Amino acid sequence: MRYVLALSSCLMLSSCANVTVQQYANERPSLDLVAFFSKPVQAWGMFQKRSGEVAKRFHVDIQSHRDGERLILDERFVYSDGTRQERIWTLQPDGPGRWRGRAGDVVGEARGEVAGNALRWRYRLDLPVDGKHWLMDMDDWMYQMDDDTLINRTTMSKLGVEVGQVTLFFRRQL
Fold first, then answer.
1. Domain harbouring 93, CATH code
2. Is residue 7 part of a domain?
3. Domain that includes residue 133, residue range
4. Which of 53, 52, 32, 68 is nearest to 172 (CA)?
């Protein structure tokens, strides 16, 4: 009974904490994904476990190009343990302020919404960990700070339970 009560309380509290991307509609500079990724981008980040422990650090080189309305992002990761990874995103406008996207390790389609300086991007990621695959729910929040800087904070969860966070800083190369 205590377990059910505790779970109900957590669900009620988390439902009160929902922030929408529209709350950032008046924030500047306005985030334009196509313009931001019109130059090569470098990014630096880390994954923290739920406890706060930094489990991995990484660097990303991002090259992009347009294919009609689609924006293609070619991300090349190098992790602190020396491992490497590539993710190629194909993003497509999906109406005013909305985007959808696909990548090889994304299950289904990612959905995003832009307002003001913010983008909220949600998707399911097939994440390999120690020889196993975990299906993680990703909730990305990106904020454009100036013309060349974007900050990203991602909450990773499985079955509704947060397992960690990713913090990432993007910088356009001049």
1. 2.40.128.20
2. no
3. 22-172
4. 32
Report which of 140, 128, 172 is spatially closest to residue 36, judged by C-alpha positions: 172
For the chain, the domain total comes to 1
Kindly report whether the peptide bond that precedes residue 29 is cis, defined as omega within 30 degrees of 0.
Answer: yes
Assigned domain for 9 exists: no
User: Which residues are bridge partners to 33 per DSSP?
Assistant: none
Q: What is the DSSP string of 90-106?
A: EEEE-STTEEEEE-TTE
The 10s digit of each residue's pLDDT in 75-126 is: 999 999 999 999 999 999 999 999 999 999 999 999 999 999 999 999 999 9
Rounded distance, CA 104 to CA 157, Å? Answer: 20
- Tens-digit pLDDT profile for residues 135-172: 999 999 999 999 999 999 999 999 999 999 999 999 99
